[in-house]
Amino acid sequence: MNVTPYIEEIRRREIRFDSYDDLDAIVEAAGDADYVLLGEASHGTSEFYTIRAELSRRLIEKKGFSFLAVEGDWPSCYTLNRYVKNDPGAAPDAREAQYSFNRWPAWMWANREITEFAEWLKSHNAAGSLKPAGTQHQVGFYGLDVYSLWESMEAVLQHLKETGSPELETAKKAFSCFDPYGREGQSYGVAAAFLSESCEEEVVKLLHELHAKRSSGAQGSEAALSDEINALVAVNAEKYYRTMVRGGNESWNVRDRHMTETLDRLMKFHGQGAKAIIWEHNTHIGDARATDMADDGMVNVGQLVREQQGRERVFAVGFGTHRGTVIAADDWGGEVQVKQVPKAMKGSWEDLMHQAGPYDKMLFFQGKNDLFMDTFGHRAIGVVYHPQYERGNYVPSLMAFRYDAFIYVDESKALEPLEQEVYV
C-alpha cells in the first residue's frame, strides 16, 4: 500500500496537541452528544488516563455531563462514587476508596492518575453542593463490567440486611446457590454449562424483585439502584461464565451487552437530559462493525450505543501511541511489570500518525466519504502483553467508521499503580 496520500492527509487535517487547552477542540466537536466514549489503546498507559481525565473535566464543566461509567466492577467503583459525592460514611480519601479495587488487574483503577482525578471530582461536587438547590448535580463514578459476581452478591446482601428489606431471603437463596463453587467463575461455568447446575433462576428472580421495588418508588435512592445493578451483574455474570467455558465469542457479547444495559439503566436513573462519559478500551468503544470483530459475530459497546441511541447522540474518541512503556503482565494474574512498547509496525495507523510528524496530535474523521475508510492495522494492548509477538496486537480497522476522533500520543509512559494486595 502506498501510504503517502494518507500521511499527507493527516498533515493537512491534524490539530497539534501541545497543551490541555487544545482539547477544547474535542469538546466542541462532541457538540450536543449525550454519550462521549473515550477509549484507550492499553489499560496501562498514563497519558490515556490523564487526557481522559482532563477531557472529562471539561465536558463536566462546559457541557454538564452527569456521570462517568468505566470498564470496572460496580462494587469497587461504587465505593469511589460514594467518596467523590461526599457521602456520609464514605472513605476518608481517594486512595482508601481505591483500595476496594483489589481484584487483578487492580492497577486499572487503583493508580495515581485516578487518585488525582477523583480528588478533583470530589472538590467539584463539594463546590456544587454549596450552590442553590437544582443548579448543580453530583457527578457520579460507576462501573460497567460483569466480573464481580461474588462481590456484587455480597454487596446486595449487606445492604438488604442493613435496611431490613423483604428481598433479603431471595438474595440469600441466590447467593447460597453459588456457594459450592468457591468464588471460581470457571468452576461455576462448567457446572452450569455441562452439569445443568445453573443458578440462573435465582438471580433473575432477585433482579426482578429489586427492579420492581425501585420502579414502584418504594426506594428510589442511589443505594437502591446499586442493589439493582449488583443483581444485574449476578444475572449476566452467571450467563458470562456459563458461555465462557463453551468457548467461542458469545461470552464477549454477553459482557458488552451487560455494559450497555448497565449504561442504559444509569441514564434512566439520572433522568431527562442525562449525559454520560464512558471510559473503556478502544476494543469496547470503537464500533465493532469497523473491525474484523464483525466477521466473528462480535458486538461491542460502541456499536450497540450507536445503534440504540442514534449516531448523532454518540461521539467516540480513540487513542493510540507510537512507542513508550506500559503496565502489563506476562499472563493473567501475573506480576505487574513496566514493559517496553516498541515502535509501531510499518504501515500501521500509529506508524502513519508518527510519519506525519513525531508529536502529539488530534484528528477528526468525516464519515463514510473519508479517506480513512480504508483498512489499517490499529494497535491494541491488553492487561496481558507480549511485545515480542507484536504483530498479533493490531486490529484491522476502518478508522473513520470506528471513531469520530482520534488522539495520538507519540511517546507514552506507564501508568503508576498504587501499592496494594490483590487477588486473582
TrEMBL record:
It holds the Pfam family Erythro_esteras. Gene3D superfamilies: EreA-like (biosynthetic domain), EreA-like, domain 2. Transmembrane segments: none annotated. Signal peptide: none annotated. This is Erythromycin esterase family protein.
